[in-house]
Structure formats: structure tokens, C-alpha cells
Amino acid sequence: xxxxxxxxxxxxxxxxxxxxxxxxxxxxxxxxxxxxxxxxxxxxxxxxxxxxxxxxxxxxxxxxxxxxxxxxxxxxxxxxxxxxxxxxxxxxxxxxxxxxxxxxxxxxxxxxxxxxxxxxxxxxxxxxxxxxxxxxxxxxxxxx
Length: 144
Hints:
Blueprint: E1 12-16, E2 22-26, E3 37-40, E4 59-60, E5 65-69, E6 75-82, E7 96-99, E8 101-104, E9 107-111, E10 122-130, E11 139-143
């Protein structure tokens, strides 16, 4: 991988974005402070066409099935990633959940997390991934 243009040390952040890129910003403590940002595009974004989420609910409850619309036929994973909340290069709120799902007509029936121990209430990025590991652009959902 290509190195970053600036060292991202203290007071820096790296956040996964809904489009699959990573935002890297800030940094500096014993040298200059960097007031700029860079975007990193992981290699998996260039493996081929991306699956598309055509519909997803705005809110989810616990232990319930929900429908995700997609025309993609080769979905291998459905995931939830908590929106980033980073300070001092640390995100104490990060969550990644792989959800169970079944293909259905026009999309997927997905099982939401069982409770707030696994997925505290809040906003998450919902991704679908194809058999090559290529992610969709995320839909933002709120777990209540």
C-alpha cells in the first residue's frame, strides 16, 4: 500500500465511510499539527462492480427480520458497522456485526441483532458483500 502523505499520530482519526473508503485526518503532537485529510480507497473497491442496496429500512428493532432490496444474486455477507466516533486515535464505540440472512425474491431477509449488548441503540452502516468480498455502498440504519 502507498504510505500516507502525513504522519497521523496524536489527535488523529481514521473513519470508515459509507462508500467503503477510509478518511484519515488530523495528527501531530511533538511536531506540526496537520489540519488536512486524506482518503484511502482499499483495493477491494476495484475488484469489479459493486452490489447495490436498492432499499433498506430506516430503523431496526431487535430480534426481527427485515428486508434489504438488491438485484445482486451472489451476496455472501450482510454486516452492520457502527458509525465512527474517534478521539485520540481510538474508537471506544466501534461495533462490527455479521448478520444472518436468506435470499428472497427481490433481495434478502436479514435477522437483526438480538439485543443491545451486541448492538447498542444508534446508527449503523448496513453493507452487503458479494462472493468476492466487494461491499455495497452502505445504507444508514438506526437500531432502536
